Amino acid sequence: MEATSRAQQAAERAGTIPPLEQVRSDVWALALEMPGGHIPYSLCYLLRDSAGGVHLVDPGWDTEANWAALLAALGELGGAPAQVPSVVATHLHPDHLGMAHRVRRETGARVILHEREQQALAGGWAVAATGPQLESWGVPGERRAEMAEVHALAAASPEFHADAVVADGQRLDIPGFDLLAVWTPGHTAGHLSLRDDARALIFTGDHVLPSIFSGLGLGGPSVTNPLADYLASLEKVARFADYEVLPGHGYRFTGLVERAAACAEHHGIRSRQVRDVLAEGGSPTVWEIASRLSWTAGWGNLRGYLLYSALAQTAMHREYLRDSNHSPST
Ligand SMILES: [Zn+2]
Fold it and tell me: CATH number of the domain that 211 lies in?
């Protein structure tokens, strides 16, 4: 795996925001701030079509600074807000979809999502973080209030309907581009990656990131197991071995096969840890299992959204192991 943008890699390490950079003759990467974050920025991509319009992939968190940065970037490309025909969001989280609402209002752009994301938005996707869920996970009463942060995160996505939904394999309407939707469920149920064969580019959103392992099942209730979905989605993108990866955070890179394998292994290790705790017997709750696993930040340091995510990951692994079809390879 190799970074193809030293500037982005250095910025991520330093916790700063890298400048606008050109990826191809008609593709740019714009880093946008992440409020209150443990992650310094998200990446928005600008695609200039053959008619002069500028299409956006993941317009980032809706803040005044990000809106100003986007207008400045459009100016640098010689475009104007009036020339944004479409916005596609890889998934519903506010650091990706967030500013789509404002972009649509200000430019008339059509907003495009995968159908499952649209359904999750319409259904109130963070509903799983409510009281009964936390109770069933065995979360101590005094730790439940901080999970309210999760609701705040959901509330940051204004409830709206996409102007169009895309399905796996469908081509996006961007003149001069052959951009295809690759449905990659796991992080959320309707997560999209996008591939451009002519430019050998693949936009991976939060499906595959260069320096973080994404949490799974973070887009509301799912009828399928997010881990099983995620592992299948990794195989789906690992076919594009020679493509440059344009992720939702961090830096662009090559070596998708290697990185996808590392992502699968990360979750494999977690499944084996959960299996080992369950093998000791005693019907532990999700909270009890999670407290016995190893976490990068340390179990005692997990708070709010990170704690919720850790518990959701633990519950998902337990479900995955309960399904007799799945046993982690050792
Ligand atoms: Zn993200």
Answer: 3.60.15.10
